[in-house]
Automatic annotation (TrEMBL):
This is Cysteine desulfurase. It catalyses: (sulfur carrier)-H + L-cysteine = (sulfur carrier)-SH + L-alanine. The keyword Transferase applies. It comes from Actinomadura barringtoniae. PANTHER family: CYSTEINE DESULFURASE, CYSTEINE DESULFURYLASE FAMILY MEMBER. Pfam families: Aminotran_5. Keywords: Iron, Iron-sulfur, Metal-binding, Pyridoxal phosphate, Transferase.
Length: 379
């Protein structure tokens, strides 16, 4: 049986989500904007889902809208934040290790005549708050900083940067896809995006949060749905399932997070002891509890993934969004670490120590075989 170690891409559907989804498919199919009985029941399900997610995230229900994905939420947050503050200026600040959805929105803004400043990171993948402060200008309309990196797990100094942005009167957008439900999100941000399938909810449900008092204007044609923020018919069953999963998952992670973190510590310690010419990347302490990334010289990442899949382990390699291209990970490049032979291990809820021990046992031989097949001999 394959051990699934790719939770950073998507967490397996939580049983609570499955139960809520099936129930909502039966009872929450009507148009929540109508007034008849079935529609009022659907509206109640949607409102309950919104309140549950808002409660976990620590925001007001009327600040939260459901989207079709975390990517759509990020795009709406960034483009809408920029659109609302055009009179201030057209300058956008992002970190060098943001998710591709954020960087693609920044690229679109730049092609449309806007200006973008990219804040570098250190070798652990973390931004320096002082460098972020130096990037802000009088014409800065919006700043973006992820809560934690999706490839190496490094947690960013969101609270410190948020305070700097507040003093400069610049709203801060936070991509919280990797932390929502898994750990507390640092305070002070103005806009936030998250994705339900990262916490065991169904795919196709994202979350957009716009705090009260933050200027935001939809970059899309107006629609009556979701507080005029997100166009299209609401996916009520998906929202109900996402909310049920988030409540259950957050409770589980409060107890299971330290156990997963200990398993990751075991991987971080043993991989460099048993494999030569390997680099474990990401911050060793200020990191997500479930994720570890390492790079092996003289091994193609895709070849190592294929070999590990054959041995019964599902892991990912390189950029989570560009693994099907030949371009190296922009995150690893920005960090200045090895981009070759990269493996990301991200443990799902309930991951067991037996599978981790088995992974650590087969990994050195797998790397050795691939190096030998490439004509490389290492001690």
């Amino acid at each position: 049986m394959t051990a699934y170690f790719d939770a950073a891409s998507t967490e397996p559907l939580h049983p609570a989500a499955r139960s809520a989804l099936l129930s909502a498919l039966e009872h929450g199919w009507a148009d929540p904007a109508r007034l008849y009985g079935a529609a009022r029941g659907t509206r109640m399900l949607l409102d309950q889902a919104r309140a549950k997610v808002a409660g976990v995230l620590g925001v007001r229900p009327d600040e939260l809208s459901f989207t079709s994905s975390g990517t759509q939420a990020a795009h709406l947050a960034i483009l809408g934040g920029l659109h609302a503050r055009r009179r201030v200026g057209r300058h956008l600040v992002v970190s060098a290790v943001e998710h591709s959805s954020v960087l693609h929105a920044a690229g679109m803004h730049e092609r449309d005549g806007g200006k973008v400043t990219t804040v570098p990171v250190d070798r652990s993948g973390q931004v320096d708050a002082a460098a972020f402060a130096a990037a802000l200008r009088p014409d800065t309309a919006l700043a973006c900083l992820q809560s934690a990196n999706h490839e190496v797990g490094t947690v960013q100094p969101v609270a410190e940067v948020a305070e700097i942005c507040r003093a400069a009167r610049v709203p801060l957008f936070v991509d919280a896809a990797q932390t929502a439900g898994r750990m507390d999100i640092q305070p002070g941000w103005s806009l936030l995006a998250a994705s339900a399938h990262k916490w065991g909810g169904p795919a196709g449900v994202g979350v957009l949060v716009i705090r009260k008092g933050v200027r935001w204007r939809s970059p899309l044609p107006e629609d009556e749905r979701e507080g005029r923020r997100v166009p299209g018919f609401e996916n009520v069953p998906g929202a109900a399932a996402a909310a049920a999963a988030l409540e259950a998952y957050r409770g589980e992670m409060a107890a299971d997070g330290p156990r997963l973190s200990a398993l990751v510590d075991r991987i971080r310690a043993q991989v460099p002891r048993t494999i030569t010419d390997v680099e474990v990347v990401g911050h060793p302490v200020q990191r997500l509890p479930h994720l570890v990334t390492f790079s092996c010289l003289y091994v193609e990442g895709e070849a190592l993934l294929t070999e590990l899949d054959r041995l019964g382990f599902a892991v990912s390699s390189g950029s989570s969004c560009t693994a099907d291209t030949l371009r190296p990970s922009h995150v690893l490049e920005a960090m200045g670490v090895i981009t070759h032979g990269n493996v990301r291990v991200s443990l799902p809820r309930g991951a067991n120590s037996t599978d981790v021990d088995r992974f650590l046992a087969v990994l050195p031989d797998a790397v050795t075989r691939l190096r030998r097949s490439a004509g490389v001999t290492t001690p």
